[in-house]
Every structure is written in C-alpha cells, then in structure tokens.
Amino acid sequence: MRKDVRILLVGEPKVGKTSLIMSLVSEEFPDEVPLRAEEITIPADVTPERVPTHIVDYSEAEQTDEQLYQEISKANVICIVYSVNNKKSIEKVTSHWIPLISDRTDKDSRVPLILVGNKSDLVEHSSMETILPIMNQYQDIETCVECSAKNLKNISELFYYAQKAVLHPTGPLYCPEEKELKPSCIKALTRIFKISDLDNDGVLNDNELNFFQRTCFNTPLAPQALEDVKNVVRRNMADGVRDDGLTLKGFLFLHTLFIQRGRHETTWTVLRRFGYDDDLELTQEYLFPLIKVPPDCTTELNHNAYLFLQSVFDKHDKDRDCALSPEEVKDLFNVFPYMPWGPDVNNTVCTNDEGWITYQGYLSQWTLTTYLDVQRSLEYLGYLGYSIICEQESQAAAITVTRNKRIDLQKKQTQRSVFRCNVLGARGSGKSGFLQAFLGRNLQRQMRIREDHKSYYAISTTYVYGQEKYLLLHEVMPDFDILSEPDLSCDVVCLVYDINDPRSFEYCAKVYKECFLDSKTPCVVVAAKSDLHEVRQQYSQSPLDFCRKHKLHPPQPFTCNTNEAPSKDLYTRLTTMAMHPSGRPSRSLLSQAHGGVTSLCRLTPRLLAREVPCVCVEVACCMLHDRAALAKRTGKHF
To answer: What is the sign, positive or negative, of the torsion defined by CA atoms of 134, 138, 144, 146?
Structure first.
C-alpha cells in the first residue's frame, strides 16, 4: 500500500474547486474564496485509511500550463470538477480534461479519475444521467460524486473515494466490460485459496474459512454468517459450494461480488495480507525479509519451519506413501510462479525405488537450499505462505543463524545441525559414486542416472551420538588452479582417489599440501573402488605413508559396487569429525554418548563388557548408537 496519497483537483474556472477544499478543511463554506488554495496535507490519523493525504488545487488564473502538467504527473488521483448547473463545464470533461490528462500520463501507470459534480444545492435534478455514458466510455473513471461545497454535502465522501481509488484501485482487479476478474487477479486469488486450503481437498471448510477470516480481518465469522456467505454463493453458482465448503469458483465469485458492489477494499485487504502490491506482484519486502548472516555463520531451518514443511508435505502426499510423485510435486509448487526444483534434485536427495522424492529427501532439499542460499529459501517459504499460516511477522522467523565457527572451535562443541563436506579428487576417482552412495544408491542404481541430470550435491541425515544431523556433500570440480574460497571452506574435507588408477592419489596429495596442510579443517582420505585390484600409486609416498606423515587417519576403503545399499558408516564418521574438528568430542557429548551406551548395557549386561570400547572420536561410539550397526556386529537384534 502507498505511504501517502496525492489528490489533484482540476476543472473549468468557477466550478468550485477551491471551495470544496476549504469546506473540507474548515467544515464550513468560506465567505471569501481565493483564486487558489495552498497545498493541504491531512495527517494519517484523521483519514479513514490512515494514510497522509495531500490535496492540490489548480487555478488557470494563477498557474501556467507547464505547472499544470507537472502536477498531473505527480498526482495519484485526479478529481475533474464540473458544475451540475453548467452544461459547458460538463462538456469540457470529455472534450478537454480527460484527453489532456491522458496525454500527460504514462499509459502503463494508469491514474484513476473521479468526476465531481459540485453545486448540487442549486439544482433539483441529478447530472448522473449525463455522466453515466461518460463513465462507461472511459475505464480510468473510478466513480462520480455529486456534492455541494456550500451545504457540505458529500465533501468528506468525495475525498474518501479519491483516497480509495488510489489505495484500492479497481483497474488491476476487474474488467467492467467483461464484468469479470482480470487474469492476474484470478491468479493471485487462486494462490491464496490454495494456501488457505490446509487439507488440500479443494474446498474451504468452516475452520479454514474462519482461519482465513482471522488472518485477513482479525476477527472470526459467526456460524450464521458463514452459512449466509455460502447461501449467497449457492444461489448464484451451482458448483460454488461442495461438501458444505467453498470451492475455488465460489471463492472467486465472492470477490467478484465485492468489487461489483464497490467493496473492492475487501479484496485488496486479502491481497495485501498475502504479500501483493498494487500491480498484483508479491512485494520484495514479503519475499525477501531482512536477515543478517555474519561471516563464518551458516543458516538453518528451525523446528517450527520443519513442522510447517512437514504439514505442506502431508497436505500434498495424497496417496500417503511418504513420497512425492511428479504430479504431487507439481501440485505442491502450483503456488509458485515457476518450478523451483529441476530434475537434478532427484540425484541430490533420497528417493524411493520409483525415483520419487521421499519425506526425508524433501526435508533434505529444503535444508540444502537454506544452507546454500537463504534468500532463495525465504522466497520459497513466502510462496507457500509460511508467515501467514504460522502467524509470523515474516519468513525470517523460520531461519536460525548459527554462531561463528570460531566460537564452536573454542568451546569444542557446536549447536549446528548441518555440516558441509567438500569432496575433492581427480577425474574418474569415484567422487560422484561417493555422493550417490550416501543416498543409498549402489553402482547398479547409479548407472541409471542421466548425465544431464547429474548433481554436484548430495544431502541426507546421519546420527551422531543419537542426534540427527544433516551432512551435505559437495563434489568439487578437479580444476586445481581455479579452486575458489567456497571450494575450500567447509567443515570436513574428503580426498578421494581410485585404488585401481596409479595416477589418482597424486591429485589428493597435491590438494592437501597446498590447501589444507595448515588448515584446521579435518581431512579424510578415501580409497574408492575398493572392490577392484589395488595398484601402486605413482607418487613419492604410498597413501598410507602419506597419511601417517601428516597425522591423518589411514585411507578409508570404500565401494558402491554392492548388492545392497552402501554402508553409511563412513558418512557418520565424516559428520562426527565435522562436529569436532579439534579431534575430540566435548564433555557434554561424551556424557550423552556414555548415557546411550549405558542404556544399551541395561538391556544386555554382557554386551557392554564384550562390545563397547572407550568413547573416542572414532566411529565406534557412533556405531553403538545405530541399532542396525550394533545388530550387525553382535548378531543380535534390539
């Protein structure tokens, strides 16, 4: 909504422009009327719409044509004043004033016009019979008001309608010739309907209508009022009400009715509550609320945001299979102006056997977007109506900005839930396979991936000391000379080489020595394709000797050429190292780990003595918190 309104009064001399302004201000007809009134500003607190209003007079005797043109260009609404007892002043409305204004305003930024018939106290008949054909001929005319400056008749109404024409314009909403809503208005109201349809059944039931009413107008509807609304729709539209709920057609019909009855401020209140501007575009303030992310801090979704996204998923998972089919994904993003996810998302997150995004994959993709591009995540949440449904000031309420990583290092503990692992290696070393294996895909499933749908990211969950964390893998392009700061900035580094390629390890060694030797970022060397024959690497040191020299863990064997889904143990270890870059977990996490072990011990007293080593940063403790891994090690099931 505009922050102020500028009203310009024009018309032939002696029609009463100045008298109208002075009668409004003094609430009495002036004894002496100057040639022109000075510009008047009415404060926001005394106007119906709570917006400052500037009223500008025009005098042919005192102003030049150039001054008139300047005022026309600055005006938000123009009142063309005529005298109801002066036929010539009425004729001038169409022969002079409307063409003049049309020539001096931008065609794309329509200025609404108000026709003002003054001196109604001097005649017994109305001028509306003459004016109605003019209103039908010119779309820019919002309304016509007959008034009397002398009797103070309709003076405040005149300026209220002028304000309303600016703040609640009819033009963007409704086509009077066709007597129907404009396509852009239908599109905006359709999005609002879909957001408000919380169970996605195609109708707004009484609870959803009441929530909509409270959201837009801060008051619920009484049960009888709800029935009255639905009865109005029933009488006018056969399919406007279904299962005692309001359909989209019924919802659109109601807004058409509001506008036809001159209550378009009702529709504008709804549109603005859902983020739309005067051009029926979502505002930048709505889509991109201010959020400050200091250096070395990351962005994550908070608990309430995940609950909201869960409700969105449940709303569109119509077959209740905990996965989104392509049709369900399309339906979910129907409230977006474009499809936000490309085909590569299916190779970024977990999918089911049919290639559909699972619930875990869906949340993972949102987590990835928030971590990499928080502004894009805010935009997406805006399209889904997060701030409205969750009754928050903006989407920024969904975001947690983590504390500086340096503080985490000092305290040797972190509150973050998302950790980034950059995966580096020579071409053909197995980086892509390593990413896809994290999503549970063995080599056979990976071979079905199309090259043009490849993703350089993979994100899923791991469990560290009983806590669910997100691990984000990023495959870095192997062009060593153009490695950028984002390629090097991460929580843990994975250096991948192919044990069957004698030239593969040299790249890992070179990257480590030049980029990570003096870094505090933990590094892990991965010996990929461990199902193949291991050959001697053409480097001055073997991978094992290199790791010993630089105090790294020994190369970790890895293969995705398995019958079942590849093991996640290595990814859990990477997450653990990302959480504790100093090499040792904090006392609080150690106690949590011991607590988990103790609870297992109570279940099987002999297990603790036989299976549980001391808690350390190694993967052993993590495995003990993974029941599947524990069962695999002990041959027992819990």
So the answer is: negative
